[in-house]
Amino acid sequence: MHDSRRMQRQRQAKKLSEASKSNFMYNSTLQQYNQVRNQAKLEMCRELDKMPIGRIQIMRIWRRNTHLTQDELEEQNFRRNITSFCLFFRHRDWELHFMKEPDVMLKYSIALCWLVYCGLLAIQLLSKDPRYHYWYIDGTTICLLTLVLIVSWYKKLWIMYVSDAEQSLPQNPISLYLYKASDVMQRKICLRLAIYFLVIASYCAVTAMQVLDCGHEDNQVDEVKYEDRLFCFHPWILTNCMTVVIGMTFLFTRIPFIIKTCLSAIITFTYALLVVVEFNYIYASSPSTNVNFNAEYSHILLIFITLGIFHLMERQSEFIAKVDYSWKRQLLKKQDDAFITNDTIKVLLKNILPSHVADFYLSNQQQNELYYEEYDNVAVMFASIKNFDTDKIGLRVLNEIICDFDDVLNKYADNIRVEKIKVANWTYMAACGLDVSRSEQVNAPQMKFRNVSLMPNGRRSRYGGSRNSDPDPNLPGGVHRVPHGNGSNIALDLELGQYEGNVITNAPRASGNGPSNQRRSNEVVLVMAQFALDLMRTMRRFNAENMQTEYEGSTDYGMLRIGISHGRAMAGVVGNSKPHYDIWGNPVNMASRMDSTGVPGQIQVTEKTAVILRNFNIQCNYRGMTFVKGRGNIPTYILGTDEHYNAFLKHRPDAGDTT
């Protein structure tokens, strides 16, 4: 018994706990909902307060500009750009462009005008018997309005029901003429004004026909004939028709606000004079809106109230349209500025990086990603200017020289391109063959280099096999072929110890091994040699024009010393900030050594590069065994040139030449 009671109590306590918990969750959710709703309401009120919707703010006149918020300052600046009464832009160009904006709602306005005219015509026919000659006026007017209606709707109807993907314009001449007329009608302000005046004139004509048969002789006050004069026309029917006409003057959206205001005011005052002067006895006899109010004034008050209401509504619409147009111009200006900025960024980026690398970063928007390329044959050049002291000469001279070199570089932008790598002190570095179409592999963004394991010395390792590999007999001494973990054998001409890691490739080597493919691949060496000769001629011309009296005792002052090598290399962009496109590999090191151990005024190349140049019938003279750091004594060659730095095209073997 006690156990059952205890279990019943536990059950009740559990139900109460769950009920309180659910009630708490409900209250908490409801409270959060109320908070979100109140916050959204406050945000909506703030945004509505920011909108310049033409409200009159008298108190702001007395406020100082120092107390205005940013939104209030923007609204104040906009109000300064627009006139108070006519709502014209103070900039004439803005107003002209605003009026030339196409009216996409014109066809709907014309359709409504046609229906309203039919209603006014029906009122005229039902209120009294029209004279016979009125049918000519009504028929002509309804035909004109119907023609305008058909032309205005022709383009939209043709696009909706006739046009297809293959036929963008009508083929029939008449149909094409109506199509273009419909398009021009929306775009030309002159045609819109002509249609607008035609519609208002038609309204005024069909309304005025109700009083045309009331002659001036009927205006005499005669109690006997009062009943006859009473049925000349119905005053309140005419007044209501005039209110419709006044409202229709404000219907068209892309008609200047001042024209609509002036035309509606003319119609209103003309009708007021008609009420007070011409047919005052008829209006005085009509029912009044108030027993203590004169009937004539009731008619006048109604049309003036109608004018005021439509004027304020149109003023608000015009103001909002001007605000939208102003924002549109600001948006277009910001877009133009953004395009200019984007183009400037592209130009700057392509001046820093090669065009294909810059396009990669611009299109993929990669951040903190390694980008690299692997090339089978790249020719590298180092060109150093000898005996120029920056402290004595200054950067202006260096800038002029480098600019001259860049002008020469621009001539090598087609076919096999020469790429400027960097300028270090008085040394100009360039490479040929860095074309992404010639690359064996370009890295894929999905490769996560951040997950690479670190070696004990802190460097990332990508080795998949042992470093103890046999030397390759086809490669220079001290260079080993490194096997990759994925089984692909990609031979890199790397000095032993130059890299502590390598990159896993996802595709096997695909370079051609035929004689024609090999010769095409070696053309980069020929192009680089031609570029080096052009730099020699450019530097000689610069010295002749600017350095005639400097260091007359020095024979190598301002002379260019160039080193060239070629082979397999890798190129890419590393680091998170200040991206720089650079190349790595054995040809970079050897070209630097050929430059540092070279002869001023000469182009020194390695033995492998000399073999390639001789295959292109360019003379390379054996210099001798030259000590190169990290390699020891190796054979080097000097490119054979005449005094104008034109390469000799015939090879003459020298003593000690081992090639």
From TrEMBL:
**Record domain Guanylate cyclase: where:** 379-595
Q: Which GO terms describe its biological process?
A: adenylate cyclase-activating G protein-coupled receptor signaling pathway; cyclic nucleotide biosynthetic process; intracellular signal transduction
Q: Where exactly are the transmembrane stretches of this chain?
A: 108-127, 133-154, 193-213, 233-253, 265-284, 296-313
Stretch list, region Disordered: 456-478
SUPFAM superfamilies per the record?
Answer: Nucleotide cyclase
| A GO molecular-function annotation | ATP binding
Q: Which InterPro entries match?
A: A/G_cyclase, Nucleotide_cyclase
Q: Which UniProt keywords apply?
A: ATP-binding, Lyase, Magnesium, Membrane, Metal-binding, Nucleotide-binding, Transmembrane, Transmembrane helix
Question: Is Nuclease tagged as a keyword?
Answer: no
Q: Where in the cell is it found?
A: Membrane
GO cellular component term of the entry, any = plasma membrane
Catalytic activity, as annotated: ATP = 3',5'-cyclic AMP + diphosphate
EC number(s) recorded for this UniProt protein? 4.6.1.1
| Lyase as UniProt keyword | yes
Q: Which CDD domains match?
A: CHD
Q: Know the name of this protein?
A: adenylate cyclase
The gene for this chain is: LOC115622564
